[in-house]
Amino acid sequence: MWRQDTSKAAEPRAKLSRRALRWALEALVCQHLTVARLAEALAVSWNTANNAVLAEGHRDPTRFDGVAVIGVDEHVWRHTRRGDKYVTVIIDLTPVRDGTGPARLLDMIEGRSKKSFADWLAQRPQDWRDGVDVVAMDGFSGFKTATAEELPEAATVMDPFHVVRLAGNALDECRRRVQLDTCGHRGRKTDPLYACRRTLHTGADLLTDRQKARLAALFAVDTHAEVEATWQMYQRTVAAYREPDRKKGRTMMAALITTLSTGVPRPLQELITLGRTLTKRAADVLAYFDRPGTSNGPTEAINGRLEHLRGSALGFRNLSHYIARSLLETGGFRPQLLGPRQ
């Protein structure tokens, strides 16, 4: 009987050779081809190509090594009327903080509750949990509670991305309310408030002369005073994060939180709500200035890449498949694939 060792060419019982699998991974991760296109190029069935790449998506046991900073956020993995459409994504922000590379997807879990995140943390080894220094998150209290229970020594940071978005949402809500009160209808192209909706979100230091003149004309109207007051608080929020001196930026943010927590006129309901939120999470908001590189902005960027993945696949119905494909797409495989061939 004649036998030949083919383990160097392919895994035992594999349907694709190592070289074919590597080509498929490079095409999928680096060139963003679909599985259907891979199957056509390799002359195999869709299931054969899909099963091969999904197996690689879960075959990286070292992805949890060296993690010190994580970001957590919710993500919509499917748009359906039935079934849970939310997942929680956990991002490794350690390379961003250390300046060694981009953020990467660490894991994805079903649901977006405190229990989901707490259970995931509880499943990690104790030495891994002890190594996590910072957890960046949005304003959802469930993530903070889970972190406090499972990672009591880790610092929780409410990152600038979500703080600025909270201030921006308050500005938009105030603008819409004043628009309805003064015009009696939603914003139209010819309405001054609607025409300035994007200019209002531009940082004061980035405004052109034309934009400054437009805002000056807008705020000259007495009925727009509430919008101006909310805009000023928004600009103070942005200015605190743009301040190069972190100590000074922290002082500016602390002063802003104090201003919003006391003495806000009752008609400015949007600022009252914003002040209540920032006061409740003041320690987490201010913690960012002591821990640079802990923004959840990279987490939102990865969410955007996952949206593109779902669009190219025309949607997913199987969450396990989606998690595996997401790990391949944003889990740090690209540097490995673009490195020297073995």
UniProtKB/TrEMBL annotation:
Coiled-coil portions: none
InterPro entries to which the protein is assigned, alphabetical: Transpos_ISL3, Transposase_DDE
Pfam families per UniProt: DDE_Tnp_ISL3 (PF01610)
Domain Transposase IS204/IS1001/IS1096/IS1165 DDE: 70-325
Highest taxon of source: Bacteria
Name of the protein in its database record: ISL3 family transposase
